[in-house]
Design a protein that fits this description.
Blueprint (H helix, E strand, L loop, with lengths): L2 E5 L8 H10 L4 E4 L2 E2 L22 E2 L1 H10 L4 E3 L10 H12 L4 E4 L8 H13 L3 E4 L20 H11 L5 E4 L1 H4 L23 H8 L3 E4 L2 H9 L2 H10 L4 E2 L8 H7 L5 H15 L4
Parallel strand pairs: 1-2, 2-5, 6-7, 7-8, 8-9, 9-10
Antiparallel strand pairs: 3-4
InterPro entries: Amidohydro-rel (IPR006680), Metal_Hydrolase (IPR032466)
Protein name: Amidohydrolase family protein
Organism: Paenibacillus hodogayensis
Length: 288
């Protein structure tokens, strides 16, 4: 079985029909279908040609689209929803979605706020009580070469803010994701200079340190950032995946097959691949 732990409905031109064809093409049995609720002025306008709900209050990728997919194909999709913790009704909205629609994941949170914000901590602890893993997107602030409408697009406040949240919510499972998380697979200083660091992985990476320290931390390998973290140093990638085989989840955050290609290139044992492809996802979100 293969479970994609990170994808979104109706973006990059993939409607439900193309989506299901794409899953079949790459042998994906189930997908964690995640919303992205974010104020319109907190994300790059370049996204707007690829996202379904640009400019709408519940956009840029609304939960209602996730729910519509799951209603049509409940055997294919596991619902995720991440209302903005800064909104006073966020926990109520999530609670209703759990009870009415069967939401199983809080994700994806991708906001210009510190993830140890007291409102976020309160919501994360609620997720822990409800058994929902939390999928977190992190991006650093660095020179993007652009001045308008913002000089950069940071999310989460960096790895230190995220670590404080993980430590403050020991009963909540977190999935680290995105450039500002995966850059810290290495102990070098590239994490706040480029979204996709290159070169051999240096000792002392924060991701490994946190995985050893916090049993409630898992990793979501989706998107270019996850693939890049393993492609930059395949020898290290193999040892990393072997060491943390019980805490790594396969995901895509797009519709290509690069993550399967990378995993299959590393000569991993079949049982390790099985955990990454579906076993660890099933541990966090068992099939009902």
């Amino acid at each position: 079985m293969i479970i994609d732990c990170h994808n979104h409905p109706d973006w990059y031109g993939y409607d439900i029909s193309r989506y299901l064809d794409n899953m079949k093409q790459y042998r994906i049995d189930k997908t964690w279908l995640l919303s992205w609720e974010c104020p319109d002025d907190e994300y790059n306008p370049a996204y707007k040609k690829n996202i379904p709900d640009a400019g709408l209050p519940d956009g840029p990728i609304s939960f209602r689209r996730c729910a519509a997919y799951a209603e049509q194909y409940p055997d294919k999709f596991i619902l995720g929803y991440a209302p903005d913790p800064r909104r006073p009704d966020a926990i109520d909205k999530l609670d209703h979605a759990i009870r009415l629609y069967g939401v199983r994941v809080y994700g994806e949170i991708k906001l210009r706020m510190m993830y140890d914000n007291p409102d976020a901590i309160r919501l994360f602890r609620f997720c822990g009580k409800k058994g929902l893993p939390v999928t977190v997107h992190i991006d650093y602030e660095f020179d993007s070469g652009s001045a308008y409408p913002r000089p950069n697009w940071w999310y989460g406040g960096g790895i230190d803010s995220f670590e404080r949240a993980v430590r403050a919510c020991p009963d909540t499972t977190f999935l680290g994701h995105a450039p500002g998380f995966w850059a810290h697979i290495s102990g070098d200083d590239q994490y706040d200079k480029t979204a996709y660091p290159n070169g051999k992985v240096a000792p002392g990476g924060k991701v490994g340190e946190m995985l050893r320290k916090y049993p409630n931390l898992y990793c979501d390998i989706s998107a270019g950032s996850g693939a890049n973290a393993f492609k930059r140093d395949p020898e290290f990638a193999r040892s990393f995946l072997l060491e943390f085989q019980d805490r790594i989840l396969y995901g895509r955050d797009y519709f290509d097959n690069v993550h399967q290609e990378v995993l299959e290139s590393l000569d991993l044992p079949a049982d390790v691949l099985g955990k990454i492809y579906s076993g660890n996802a099933l541990k966090l979100v068992p099939l009902s």
